[in-house]
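thoughts on these tokens:
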Amino acid sequence: ACLFKMHKRASALTFLRKSLDIVKRLSSDEALQKLTISIHTHIGQCLAEMNQDVMAIDHLEQAMKIHLEISESKEHDRVVAELKNYIGICMMHVKNFDSALALFEHAMRIRKCTTIVEDSDEAIALSHEYIGICLIQTDKPSEALFHFERTRDIRKKLSFDENFDENIANNLQNTAVCL
């Protein structure tokens, strides 16, 4: 995790892959499965940040599969929403905008239903922003405008955010593209 945060993705990836190899050799109790989910997720994030999106999608989907196998809440929890967002971002990078759009919409529906409040508003704003970007890429600017406006409105309410001005500037730029 430290190497990942220090932006040493290649080194982090090496350690994560070794960790995954070790975990695969051990028995598969629930604690190890949760660790496996975390490792696959971090590998996916590293690969995505290294522009290896197809391989990132594979690891993120493996994390999702394992999570759904062991989770009691199944498809309606925060982990699923986060994984869908990560996979959606990778899908955008490989220009599969229809799949990305479906993933972001599903993640947003989960976030709206979640009882975890601490980050759901920003996560919903981010989902709206990603949906808007996908809609721009699929030549639906009027639909995108709605989502960019929702992003702006949610983020205005979250004005305590240290990146508020940057987020609003980015959102206004996205809105301008739609006009």
